[in-house]
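haha ok so turns out i had the wrong file open the whole time. this is the CORRECT one, sorry everyone. sequence first:
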Amino acid sequence: MLIMQLAIILLASKIAGDISVRLGQPSVLGKLLVGIVLGPSVLGLVNDTDILHEISQIGVILLMFIAGLETDVDEFKRTGKASAVVGTAGVAVPMSLGYAAGMVMGMPVLEAIFLGLLLSATSVSISVQALKEMGRLKSKEGSVILGAAVIDDVLVIVALAFVMSFAGGDVNLTMVILKKVAFFAIALLLSWKAVPWILRKFAPLKVTEAVISAGLILCFSFAYFAEYTGVASVIGAYIAGVAISLTNYKHEVFEKVETIGYAIFVPVFFTSIGVSAQFNGIQENWKLLVILSILAIAAKLLGCAIGAKAAGFNWNSSLGIGSAMISRGEVALIIAAIGLDAKLLQQDMFAVIVAVVLITTIVTPLMMKLFFKEKAQGERAA
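then structure:
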């Protein structure tokens, strides 16, 4: 059954991606939408199984690993301040507006804060693919988006720990923060000393694709370490990619991993987002869905755009950066599941949030195409 589902996903995602590009949109949009068509909500040809979920997780990890391999480290350093401003604004504005919306809806204070926290999350895996297709992953804007996403992730996770401690969960806030600090300190040290050494040791081994295997071992190890310390696994994979990009093995690893990733794992990831869409229980709350979707899109777009503008970008670039931060993806879904277990999110609200996450994910590549296309036209005119 899994083998047939993989065949269907790969065929449908490639065709849908091609149609999307022919219509002037990023291919990722077609892959997301075809997932909804293939899934239980429409045709029911593909089911959201645990195995499919695990394959899709490998897909997003490889996607961010490839993004790390393509990162211009010098540009990343130059945009560090801008990333910090964008990441902070991208949490502060949605957090404030989400809390205000919760209070207007009559939620208890802690639940309103949690709603704000949910709207603050960002997942740039979709944005990475859109940037890649538009040739902007290595641009100044691309570097800011990736840096801001890391900062956003850390701020949201620390805030989540803070909220959970007030909700009566068994959470040691100090330990949570120390684990995050430990992850980045150890990951940077390993990137500097261990990664080049491991690649050099693997290179002369008399086995096939030794260097590629070493790269994947580092990718998955960093991803696991990140997840173990409470940081998103994609952040670990991204850091591993950046570390390898500074070595002489960058191009060899990039070419082979891109082939492996885009042949099977990455298409499964994009399509599985649509497959996992559930529309049960939102019919009665469609007004709430519309309001929260607009709020989720506007809060991230404006918050990050204002941050980018304050960091010196023009409005087109600022709005492009803001649009790339809109997708909530798997980060918001994980937080929502935690909130459901902790009784900070009601079941009907959980269904609405899942739909909001899907909407923000679909809207992201559309808006990026709009703003970055306008920017490109402005550059040509100049």
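The two ends are 55 Å apart (CA to CA).
again sry for the mixup
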